[in-house]
Amino acid sequence: MVGEYCKTALDIALGRAEKGKRSWKCITEKQPLNADICYVLMPTTVEALNKACIHQIKEYVEIKYYSDFVLVSCVENKRIINDYGHFNQNAIFIKQEEMEELITFFKLVGVDNNVIILSMDEPFGSGSIMQKLHIPINEYVSGTFLWRPNDTDQGKY
Length: 157
What we know:
Elements: H1 2-30, E1 37-42, H2 47-63, E2 68-74, H3 78-84, E3 91-94, H4 96-109, E4 115-117, H5 127-132, H6 137-146
Parallel strand pairs: 1-2, 1-4, 2-3
Helix pairs in contact: 1-4, 2-6
């Protein structure tokens, strides 16, 4: 019985990851996957976190020597991105369910060096630590952007 439940849960997760893979393929067809482009996934609707991301993205792109960036966000964040960033040409909006499937895909296969998932909850969650240690959102975003364990090539640290 437990084995059947685990198999069903695994099947569901793998199905969601497969859908996420298809979403990623669609995204990279719109904005081709390129080592010189940074892809920032904003799965959260936490306005303060998204504003901090929007304010810091251009600086991050400069520091890391990327030529450009693509924001991938939920449709619910369209107003925030338009109001605070004017990044329409750099933004791709997807449904919340598609974003969750995309995160499931990245949990399974890992995240490319030039992909950042900016969230306090996904893919593995650090929001409770952030709150417990009273880390301001701007510092959290800076740390997420500036500390990338796999940035070793092309001047990226």
